[in-house]
Amino acid sequence: xxxxxxxxxxxxxxxxxxxxxxxxxxxxxxxxxxxxxxxxxxxxxxxxxxxxxxxxxxxxxxxxxxxxxxxxxxxxxxxxxxxxxxxxxxxxxxx
Length: 95
Fold this sequence. Notes:
Layout: H1 3-23, H2 29-41, H3 48-57, H4 62-70, H5 78-91
Helix pairs in contact: 2-5, 3-5
């Protein structure tokens, strides 16, 4: 891989992360912190399908996301459930 393609790939990843950080800005501070930290620390480690699912999750209403992350609600879709659990495990402190 050439230096130019490495730079282009880095710029593309940076642009994608910037867009995602903006989408992670929510009406609830708890969701801002949780989703923003996940994007900064873990998003690039997801596979392509998980990234697509994460982007779907960002379209959910704040209250539903809050219930998924901090309440007892569980997503029916297994792919969404898997990414929600990954975020919870990667970001929330384990007791």
